[in-house]
Amino acid sequence: MTTLCFRQPAPDDALRCFQIETSAYEGDEAAPLERIVKRIAEYPRGFLILEADEEIVGFINSGCAFHVVMSDEEFKELVGRS
Question: What does pTM read for this prediction?
Answer without folding.
Answer: 0.78
